[in-house]
Amino acid sequence: MTAAVDKSLKSISGSATLRLALVVDDSRLQRKIMSSLLRKWDLDVIEAASGDEAIEICKTQEPDLVLSDWMMPGMDGLEFCRQFRAMRRDSYGYFILLTSKGEKDEIARGLDAGADDFLTKPVNAAELRARITAGGRILKMERELSQKNRVISETLATLQTLYDAIDKDLKQARKIQESLVPETVRSFGKSRVSLLLKPCGHVGGDLVGMFSPDDMQLGFYSIDVSGHGITSALMTARVAGYLNSAFPDQNIAMVREADESFSFRPPEVVARMLNDRLNADAGVEEYLSMLYAVVDLRTGVAKFVQAGHPHPLLMRADGSTEFIGCGGVPVGLVSGVSYEQSQVQLTPGDRLLLYSDGFPECQMNNGKMLDDEGLRQLAQTTPYEGSGSDFLQDMFWRLAENMADPGQLSDDVSAALLEFPGPNAI
């Protein structure tokens, strides 16, 4: 070996990935030659005279590099390689088979057994150095990858812990949001209002509700806050407080009269008041669409305001249907907006459906949205047997069954249905 080659060989131990080498050969002379070279390159060396002895060593130590003769009595190098690969290790070990075999099929057998490289005897020092250097690079990349995988695993475990905590909080938040709609069905004299609320996630931005000071009048609404998730859910909780059914004094839709009774403010006034309150809060970017209606149950006159919300669907007792309303600007989007009130006369047997855009904008399995006409057809073909609640649930079931991704909502879906069998007695 020349001095230049010997000097260059000293650099292979510079990588922290190569520290311990195992030399396996039944020839003591060959082991000494190989071990001498490796120690000169600052590697720690262990020697084994057979495959069985090498396996026992590997049970207690993990060599970074293995140089093993192929042809040995007892367990040959090929079998040793197979058993070496089957052992549990914290890191990868680079395995070089020393052989006089050069046939392609023999090399293939070695690769199948788990060998990384081959050297033909007698071993050339410069070639050995090059093969070990290449092995060092592979070990370095493997251990860097293992370290990154450990970091990723630890990070994923931390994220999973955080996710579990958030998921637990969101489940509790869903219970709180469900409490905003304590009743899904309520009768007002002869009439009845049924509510449907299906968030696309743990919590949603849709809200439906109803309230009444007596059996002669009722108010009900459908609201859709912009966006999805926690922020929208917080907004629905806030708006629910403004339209509280349990505490009329806190409900901006109702006003206390001199005789301590309550009456309804006009729907357009309620929309304007709500718009002013939302616009008064700096930093709040969310807005909402709303359909709010009040019904005089003595006369069947329904007055409503439509603020950026889908047109309500009036289903007449004779089976005809029509979309009603005059549109309007969403609440909280622009300050100083005025709203226009609409009115419709209900007759016995009529039903009035308020709904969020989760219905008409739902992506169906034909690649198109349900749209308004699809909603009309869905409402007309859904059996109605005198139960508004069953009707809404059946409508939603039919919608979910024919979605592009069945059961996977892309938006919150909600609805409120008024059944008007006839005027209440005065």
Commentary on this structure:
- By secondary structure, this protein is α+β, with helices and mostly antiparallel strands.
- It has 2 domains: 3-148, 3-Layer(aba) Sandwich (Rossmann fold); 179-420, PPM-type phosphatase domain (Phosphatase 2c, domain 1, 4-Layer Sandwich), CATH 3.60.40.10.
- The protein contains 10 helices and 18 strands.
- The strands form 4 sheets. Strands 6-7-18-17-14-15 form a 6-stranded antiparallel β-sheet, covered by helices on one side. It has a 5-stranded parallel β-sheet with strand order 2-1-3-4-5, with helices on both faces.
- Strand 10 (254-256) and strand 11 (262-264) form a beta hairpin.
- It is rod-shaped and about 115 Å long.
- The relative contact order is 0.09.
Order of helices and strands: HEHEHEHEHEHEEEEHEEHEEEEEEHHE
Question: What's the alpha carbon Rg, rounded to whole Å?
Answer: 39 Å
**In order across it, which strands form the biggest sheet?**
6-7-18-17-14-15
Alpha-carbon distance between the two ends:
116 Å
Structural class: alpha+beta
Low-confidence stretches: 1-11
At the first level of CATH, what is the class of the largest domain?
Answer: Alpha Beta
| CATH-derived architecture of the largest domain | 4-Layer Sandwich
State which percent range the strand residues make up.
15-25%
Give the gist of this structure:
The protein is of the alpha+beta class and 426 residues long. 37% of the residues lie in helices and 24% in strands. The chain has two domains: 3-148, 3-Layer(aba) Sandwich (Rossmann fold), CATH 3.40.50; 179-420, PPM-type phosphatase domain (Phosphatase 2c, domain 1), CATH 3.60.40.10.
